[in-house]
Amino acid sequence: MNIFRPVPGGWVCQLGEVERGLFLKAISEVRTLLDPPVLPFEITTMLGEDDSEDAAKDIHLSNASLDRLLPPGAADEQTAQTMRDLTDSQLRTQKAERLDRLYQLLSEQTGPTLVIKSGQEWDWLGGINDVRLAISGKLSPEDLNADSQPDKQMSSQVNPKTGNEKFEEALVSSFYEWLSGWQDSLLQAIDSWPQPS
Question: Which of 81, 83, 104, 167 has its CA 20 to 30 A from that of 89?
Fold first, then answer.
């Protein structure tokens, strides 16, 4: 585990090239996921083939990871859609801009030591959390809850998975756990020490 510790002006931790590369790739993928989709009706409208307004009702395509990043604002479907119409664009932009900053900050640093400067910590915490949310959409509930072993065994009997699927799921689950611990380490370092000067 890469533990953060406070230093004058911020926080540092050791970060290997594998972890750095995985995190950069994950940031890039989540950033792409947040781009508003170009829907078929937009393309056909540009070509003059479809003037239907019904096709334009919902730009939030069904995707488990996106649903975690941009959850509905209400349980009622109609209210949720109204909330999404009002907030979707702004939330996408805020999260995308934060991930862009995070990608740049991480790309600019070289060597085994990662430095988070005082004032940047909330971008890091928010960005890490967005990546975690997106990853959680790829995991089954039993992967997110270690106490549900009986359910996991039953699920694997009902929906058997191939070797490749199991391997990919194990990698994603391991990365999710590492990222969660890494985020928690930064939170503890911030909470346990006076604000660095």
Answer: 104
Instruction: Report the C-alpha gap between 68 and 140 in whole angstroms.
Output: 13
How far is CA 98 from its chain centroid? 11
Sign for the pseudo-dihedral over CA of 103, 107, 111, 114: negative
Q: Which two tokens stand for residue 195?
A: 């604000």
Q: Is the pLDDT of residue 54 over 70?
A: no
Per-residue pLDDT at 161: 64
CA-CA distance, 152 to 15, in Å (whole number)? 32
Return d(Cα 106, Cα 1) in angstroms, integer. Answer: 18
Q: Residue 46: its pLDDT value, please? A: 54
Measure Cα distances from 186 to 128, 154, 190 in Å: 10, 36, 6
